[in-house]
Amino acid sequence: MVAPAEPKPAVAFVGLGVMGYPMAGHLARAGYPVSVYNRNPSRALAWCEAFSGRRAATPAEAAAGADFVMSCVGNDDDVRAVLEGPQGVLAGIGAGAVVIDHTTTSASLAEELADACGRRGVGFLDAPVSGGEAGAQRGQLSIMVGGPAALVERARPVLSSYGRTVTRVGEAGFGQRCKMVNQICIAGILQGLAEGLQLALASGLDIDAVVEVVGGGAAQSWQLDNRARTMARGEFDFGFAIDWMIKDLGICLAEAARLHIDLPLTRLVESYYEELQTRGLGRCDTSALIRRLRG
Predict the structure, then answer these.
(1) HEC string of the chain?
(2) Least confident of 6-10, 24-28, 58-62
(3) Which domains does the chain have, with CATH numbers?
(4) pTM greater than 0.85
(5) Per-residue pLDDT reduced to its tens digit, 189-242
(6) Residues labelled as active-site residues
């Protein structure tokens, strides 16, 4: 006789934006009992209609009884509000549970939250993700995790519901520092891709042929494969918004200042994004860098 499978741990997901909505959906599909909270309740209601789960009125209510609580919101202040506010996650979570923050934030906030959780007997992992909306929808995100090794292993099965890779990169705060590296690299690659495409377009080259041949060599990248053709066509109504990239690059530059290092290309590309933002393009995908060159 086959022994019945052990029940899966209860999870809560706070923040059902373009990333959190599908991430929470993968947890439900994987058979986890899921409670959700979103600042706009209609979004949570829609999620509950699409998936099997329970809608909570507050983050504290969502966290009550949960073994793992994931958050994915906007910025440092949003994270503090949903975790440490009067009706926040820490007001409802039980000792022994684990908070996993997927928001891209400062490393100092991650360290602050690790301390706050520790004082309550709660585990904490900072676990920003890379892969964008498409990666979240496919459950193919790259998750960079900061926190104790044993805690990461405990959370790995849950994170693997939407993570193609789950990699511990160090203690609390190091997940966020790794995400900074990710965003710096993306910014530089996109600026180079924008300039390369500008030359290709001005020269009359066939963009499909350029992407094929360049993609077969040392210049291959995710951005080239997934964004070059849409950049050439002037399509930017999708993906990761410029507004959010400006926030992320600001975090990178603040960390660089703390470390007394210079990131000249990052500062330059941030200024380009700010220019596009002032032109009303803040909600466009980050690949809209080419708009600066094409007018």
Answers:
(1) CCCCCCCCCCEEEECCCCCHHHHHHHHHHCCCCEEEECCCHHHHHHHHHHCCCEECCCHHHHHCCCCEEEECCCCHHHHHHHHHCCCCHHHHCCCCCEEEECCCCCHHHHHHHHHHHHHCCCEEEECCEECHHHHHHHCCEEEEEECCHHHHHHHHHHHCCCEEEEEEEECCCHHHHHHHHHHHHHHHHHHHHHHHHHHHHHHCCCHHHHHHHHHCCCCCCHHHHHHHHHHHHCCCCCCCEHHHHHHHHHHHHHHHHHHCCCCHHHHHHHHHHHHHHHCCCCCCEHHHHHHHHHC
(2) 6-10
(3) 11-171 (3.40.50.720), 177-294 (1.10.1040.10)
(4) yes
(5) 999 999 999 999 999 999 999 999 999 999 999 999 999 999 999 999 998 999
(6) 179
